[in-house]
Amino acid sequence: MLMRTDPFRELDRLTQQLLGSSGTWSSPSAMPMDAYREGDVYVIAFDLPGVSSDAIEIDVERNMLTVKAERRPATKADDVQMELSERPLGVFSRQVMLADTLDTEHIEAAYDAGVLTLRIPIAERAKPRKISIRAGGEQKQIGG
């Protein structure tokens, strides 16, 4: 149901981790995701820990799903001295090519415990159905 649009995305993510660079709006970091089918719904879950729900953008143009999020630094008092900072900050993005069999008009999004979950129903036209055949004035049902 999904096609990766950039085969080098994982390599970019690893390079950014090694170099400690953070993403920007023009060059965002990758975000990890899982995708699976649950009955007649396709589910995609993105890990976005520490991101506020108002800092997440979800767009669908034709069959291209784009999720962008920004993890901003926590505001600290003036007398706070940072000793260690390993949590990545900046902009994260992921693009996923969705199959024509998915109903992009009815995507549901939920955000809980740092996980953005998108539920995309399978389009009615893609579901199996029975086809009636008229033969000699008699109709028969075939198909799965």
Task: Report on this structure.
By secondary structure, the protein is mainly beta. The chain is 8% helix and 44% strand. Strands 1, 2, 5, 6 and 7 form a five-stranded mixed β-sheet that branches. Strands 3-4-9-8 form a four-stranded antiparallel β-sheet, with no helix packed on it. Strand 8 and strand 9 form a beta hairpin.
How much β-strand is present in the residues?
A: 35-45%
Number of helical segments? 1
Q: How do the helices and strands follow one another from N- to C-terminus?
A: EHEEEEEEEEEE
Largest sheet, strands/sense/barrel? 5 strands, mixed
Measure the end-to-end span. Answer: 21 Å
Shape descriptor: elongated
Helix content: under 10%
| Overall mean confidence score, pLDDT | 81
Protein name: Hsp20/alpha crystallin family protein
Domain SHSP: 24-136
Family: Belongs to the small heat shock protein (HSP20) family.
Organism: Streptomyces kurssanovii
Short description:
By secondary structure, this protein is mainly beta.
Ordered list of secondary-structure elements with their pairings:
Elements: E1 2-4, H1 9-19, E2 29-30, E3 33-38, E4 41-47, E5 56-61, E6 64-71, E7 90-98, E8 108-112, E9 115-121, E10 131-135, E11 138-142
Parallel strand pairs: 2-7
Antiparallel strand pairs: 1-7, 3-4, 4-9, 5-6, 6-7, 8-9, 10-11
Pfam families: HSP20
Protein name: Hsp20/alpha crystallin family protein
Family: Belongs to the small heat shock protein (HSP20) family.
